Amino acid sequence: MNKLLIVGTVAFDAIETPFGKTDKILGGAGTYIGLSASHFNLKSAIVSVVGDDFPQEYLDLLKAKNIDISGLEVVQGGKTFFWSGRYHNDLNSRDTLDTQLNVLADFQPKVPADFKNADVVMLGNLHPLVQSSVLDQMETQPKLVVLDTMNFWMDCALPELLDVIKRVDVITINDEEARQLSGEYSLVKAAAKIHEMGPKYVVIKKGEHGALLFNSDKVFFAPALPLEEVFDPTGAGDTFAGGFAGFITQSENISFDNMKNAIIYGSNLASFCVEKFGTERMEKLQKEEVSARLRQFKALTQFDIALEN
Amino acid sequence: MNKLLIVGTVAFDAIETPFGKTDKILGGAGTYIGLSASHFNLKSAIVSVVGDDFPQEYLDLLKAKNIDISGLEVVQGGKTFFWSGRYHNDLNSRDTLDTQLNVLADFQPKVPADFKNADVVMLGNLHPLVQSSVLDQMETQPKLVVLDTMNFWMDCALPELLDVIKRVDVITINDEEARQLSGEYSLVKAAAKIHEMGPKYVVIKKGEHGALLFNSDKVFFAPALPLEEVFDPTGAGDTFAGGFAGFITQSENISFDNMKNAIIYGSNLASFCVEKFGTERMEKLQKEEVSARLRQFKALTQFDIALEN
Hints:
Two copies of one chain form a homodimer.
Chain A: E1 3-7, E2 11-17, E3 20-21, E4 25-27, H1 29-37, E5 43-51, H2 56-64, E6 67-68, E7 72-75, E8 82-87, E9 94-100, E10 120-123, H3 128-136, E11 144-148, H4 151-156, H5 158-165, E12 170-174, H6 175-182, H7 187-196, E13 201-205, E14 211-215, E15 218-222, H8 236-251, H9 256-273, H10 280-284, H11 287-301
Parallel strand pairs in A: 1-5, 1-10, 2-8, 5-6, 5-7, 10-11, 11-12, 12-13
Antiparallel strand pairs in A: 2-3, 2-4, 8-9, 13-14, 14-15
Helix pairs in contact in A: 1-8, 3-5, 6-7, 8-9, 9-11
């Protein structure tokens, strides 16, 4: 089985949406990526850090999903990273109510020996120096390195972010972040500028409006599945990235055509994530549900126009 | 050849975008629909009204596109409908600077005798009473009636709008209008409520984010082509509707699968419309350009995932 190395936060979230609110629940980019990638036939490990307040049941959950957590450091006497946010009525924007870095402030990632030759590395949203450090520890060149980031690092650690962006094959960011990073409003132009920063593949996530995959002059688009209810968007982008990286890891194929499939799988998995609070839907998601929804994605997008020659 | 009857404004527009501004140029929903539908093998007619200030060269342009203008009334001593607007920097929103109804205020549409048995009727954005009057004049039941409208009529003439919506097969509106008309935020729920108002098919236009086609429990999505530059969005929605109605008219096929193709053709033609000011791009658009871009749409959206059984 191929190996996927994941770095990303494992955290507590407290979420408010127009439909309700949660106490501290399981969250973090690494968690969502790991749960999503667990739908593929691969070996995965999460590199992250938590405090000793992190419940054993959450660790057990990750292990039950066949995720190697030997690189998930537990800091004795430390507190787990905590994020709290409130979504607006349209669920497209949110206010951060509280961020407590806690053990994340001094996090030194340690890649498990068995994953220093991982086939694919998924660098989830974290400080770019942490992302770079993970790449530094690899003993063989991964077939594909995927990086996810956000506007926070563009504001606070741009030089470090640009350094790590140079080293990756694929970057996944949302539309506003692509515009901020490139200084271009047109997403076509933004992708072209981000190509020049290093990544051969640029994935622009547009939330409910789908995702675009750019590779020099080629472009592919995957819609989001139109849903009756979006309950909680938390983790949707990470779930998308985890599905993308997981599918690539399993298939061992980094052609553009296969990346199209990876984007569809990512969108498919993300469409489940938003149906319940936090990780609830992803924890119980069954293979049959994923397959059935994949058929919906086909019906949603495939057409058959005879093209004149 | 099958017949397409178009009702919609033929007008003067004055447009400001971040890229420049125009004096009074050719505009109007009927104009854009007619130019778009002229790319198909069909007979079309526009029912509309202008004043005697409307230049002969614009009438000649419509005739040169094989559009029957015997139902385009020229009011002697009257002035043509005029709209002026300014787009914001993101081109997604605009302010109306001036609206002069002029001859449109007392418009009584007259369907040419030769088009009272049209196969398809495209009711462009106009007062719902005008749209109803056109349907009243039909001597045979059209195979398909398509209606486009906007929030203005929801605010000012809702009962009349609901009356005409009852009588049509397809409604095309944008996402915000679908939400306003239905009172539902989720577009899936909005489409379901609009189905109950009459139309079997609900097309929700999302501008740069593509378009959704709903038919009871079936849904199809066509993206907008990612463009380097969007120059002027004026008329894009009408061009989309004209492409949709034109394709259906030519193909004589109102199955859901064929409507998917119609949505793709509409998106394809709209992608050209926005590349220049006003009707400029559509006036000179060649068949070969349309075919080439259709191939881009296929590449943009088609994928080949093996689905498990």
